């Protein structure tokens, strides 16, 4: 008869029996795992995450999620409609009212009415005028059109955004196509350098790598959500230019910005062409005579203090009417530093005072184009507008030439501008009168 086991022995034996299978399994698992190379272990470790991302990406594609990002140059810029549904009408979206006029119009264009959308920056907005919405060239053009075509109602939609560059306008032009426009007018170019977009960090906006990156909707979604949080605080406060700190010194960035500007103009023209809406494009006039460059770096080999002393000396001599001496100082700097915007401006003023108007124009244009803080449309940008007009057969309003022709010696100054680029009321009148024959012909 088998000897009975004590409770203690039974428990010990049970533990041994139960422990044996688990140790064996552990050994077997380790043996199997050791057969896989390290890279397979890494792959299998990340496989669940990859599957989850793939399912999420597929879900976003099936749901038709569209990111606000449409242009690799633009980084991940938050996009929102300018106008939102308000029943039978649409109104300016509330967050956009920091930068655009509050406007409202019918979704369905009234029979017989003509609807004109005008896009641009703060000049189009009417910045600096006593009553921007009523006195801007947009409203003035509407009045002139109604006088020319009695009985026709003209709906003038002012889509001028404070500090808005061309890349911010592309989506707005595309959005406007759903509201049955009869004409689109575009004047953009002053704000292209306002935001630090660091083009030099982008190898090629059209590269295969960038296209793949910007096609991943999960990435778009994450940045979209992050930017929505940032949108809670206004981008600008008070004066729309007071927070700008961006200085451009890189020639490559100038070129990238011009390329992007060209791309944006063509995209807006494409949208109008696709929907068979006529479009007028305009050059951008600037204050040449009475606007000091916003930023001039000291010439090579000269400190900030030494350059300041030189400027003070030139100012004293200029006030004393010793223009030739001042010109000699400016030309001395320009000899070794031909891109010194401040020196070009001083030389231009001296040439103006001594009657050398051709030289004055040359220097004052250079002062604008070589400003390290370019808030005024560069000559190359206006030339690009003219070139696109010729290539695409788009009607051109050459506002730069109109303002030049309306100024003494072809040098616009405080006679037509409040500041660097915002026209006085008479300047907006020039815009409206110049646009009238083109708009009338197209409408």
Write a structural description.
The protein has 16 helices and 8 strands. Helix 5 crosses helix 16, helix 6 (166-176) runs parallel beside helix 9 (251-274) and helix 12 runs antiparallel to helix 13. The N and C termini lie far apart (116 Å). Helix content is 51%, strand content 8%. The strands form 2 sheets. The chain has a 5-stranded parallel β-sheet with strand order 5-4-6-7-8, with helices on both faces. The protein has helices at residues 7-34, 38-63, 122-125, 132-135, 137-148, 166-176, 208-215, 217-230, 251-274, 304-319, 323-336, 341-353, 357-369, 379-392, 399-405, 425-442, and strands at 83-86, 89-92, 104-106, 114-120, 154-160, 183-187, 279-282, 396-397. It has 443 residues and is α/β, with parallel strands linked by helices.
